[in-house]
Structures are given as structure tokens and as C-alpha cells.
Structure of OB domain-containing protein:
Amino acid sequence: MVPSAQTNINTQFILLDKGRTEIVGQNWTCLALVADETAAVLFQFWSDDCDSFEPGDIIHLINGIFSYNRNNLVLRAGKRGTIKKVGEFTMPNMSEIHWASDPNNSKKYVQETAIFTHSHIFPSLA
């Protein structure tokens, strides 16, 4: 992809992380980090879309725009583009698990709690 004002970006990506929401005029916006199998880029959500998507969501973008915003390359739907959730990332993230020694066998570990608050895979056991 290269920066352009054309609305012709059609792609699918995973939402990795969302930034804070900011007020812009009468609307609000938030930047998110998204990625596909080739690269990661910032994505700009507007208004209700800021709350409609969560990390781990797989999103399909139709007629999007890839342009500069405050000296950053940003992918966005724009006025004519659309975004739609088409799935969720379901592979377990081993980094989000807190492991503890097994009380019955000191050479083994057991899952104690999930650390990551957005986890859909490992609910907290605490």
C-alpha cells in the first residue's frame, strides 16, 4: 500500500490494540494498531466504531483510504468505505497466562490466572 486519496483499499486485518478516544469536533476518534500477514499499520476509527471493535477482532475493510494524518500513515474507512467484523482471533496467547507451580508436582506448572483483561480464551480462575 502507498498513501493516496483514493478510496480503493480492500483488505482484511486483525485489531491488535486500541488507543484512547479523542474528541474531534462533534465526533470522536481513536487510533488502533492493526496487522495482516504482511505488515502492521495504524487504523483510525470514528464515532461508534471506536466502541464497536475490540482487540482480537478480524475486520474487513472495503473502499478504505491509506493516507497521512499528523505525519503518520493511517488506514481508515473514510466517508465511502465500510468496516465489518468477520471473525475473532482464537489462537491462545501463552503470554497472557500466569503460571504457578503445581502443588502436587513441583516439576510441573499449572494455569493460575489470565493476565490480559481482554482475553476471550482463558477466563480468570481467581
